[in-house]
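Submission checklist for the structure archive. All mandatory fields must be present; incomplete records are returned to the submitter.

[x] Identifier: Protein refolding chaperone Spy/CpxP family
[x] Organism: Granulicella rosea
[x] Residue count: 153
[x] Sequence attached
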Amino acid sequence: MKIEVKLRLRAAMLAMCMLSVCGLPALAQDSGAPPAPPSGQDGPPQGGRGDREAAMLARLTRDLSLTDDQVKQVTVIEDDARQKMMALRNDTSTAQADKRTKMMAIREESQAKIRAILTDEQKTKFDEMEAKMKARGAGGPGGGDPPQPPPQA
């Protein structure tokens, strides 16, 4: 029974890590102006994976005060990681347990690459963000605290 709980916890943590890795590339989009309200006919449907990815990069950009050059580099790193993750997900010859291990390695590699382009001050903040994410993920079998609602403007 304990092993099953540990596996579920690891799966939840992996899901959070995958969101972190896969979410950053779309966040490199210019967020200077608020998006136009959905008209029902133009643009992609709202609330998809791209929104989470955009929010992740925006948060990194804001919290770490990334330069435009750093944003471009993070986008390239995350695009590469996302492509590797998708290829691994589509690989039917690899066992699920092996996929999970490889996905964690891809995430760790991309995090190390991101960390390498940061200043010392940014690295400290980045490490704090990572620690908070891991702490939230270890909150229990459900994967931690539920997401907080966005602040009211």
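[x] Structure attached
Curator remark: Residues 68-90 form the longest helix (23 residues). The chain has five helices and no strands.
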